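INFO batch 0412 | record 1 of 1 | parsing
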Amino acid sequence: MSSWKEFYKNESINYDRIRYDYWYGNIFSLLHESALSEMLKNYMPKSVILDVASGTGHNLAALSRSGGAVMALDLTSEMLLESRKKIWHSSVAYIIGDAFCLPFPDNCFDVVSSSRFLHLFSEKQQQIVMIEMIRVLKPGGLIIIDFYNIYSWIIFYPIIIIYRILKCKRPTKDTRNSVSSVHKFLLERNLSLNETIGVGSYLLYFARFLPEKFAIKLGEFFKNKPCRFLSEQFIVSAQK
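INFO prediction complete | emitting tokens
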């Protein structure tokens, strides 16, 4: 993990600017926050929540609105510092820790979430992290995790590659998952599935010059079947 720690230490200052400080990044962020809030709305208030690999606090606005105590865990103090600049809330505590070996006992959180993290690792490594997240989750608790969607990557691959070349983006080695493979893994760990929501889509780039409100509305089409397979990412929630 030392290489990741060094990378995000150097990346922390520019992390949000690179990923969210442009038209689609902002639209994606709004759609993601809306989906996360939807998954939490019927869950118990005053929950104790853990956000794994919290980074610059992408999940924290929605999590802190739940009214419970939120613990933001990340590998680097630099990322957490950037998060605190954005989300300064009395209910949010920050802690340095490794997602592969969470520094908590079994069954201690009502909600465990993670966003824009698991794609960095192989499927086997993803499973190690998810097992750790399940371990610290209370019985009846809610796990919320997101993944890059393999099907939209396959469908839009030529366009994505051209775009990344034109924008001089780094080569990507991200792991992409199918909804069915994630569901299978969680069911095999005796979790019950709650919701699966698609977030964003490469097709939204064609709405670049439309009003933001219209683009958000358009993004709603990729949340559920039959259009979810075209979403850039998907979020899964399940109960232990």
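INFO post-check: The mean pLDDT is 90.
INFO record closed
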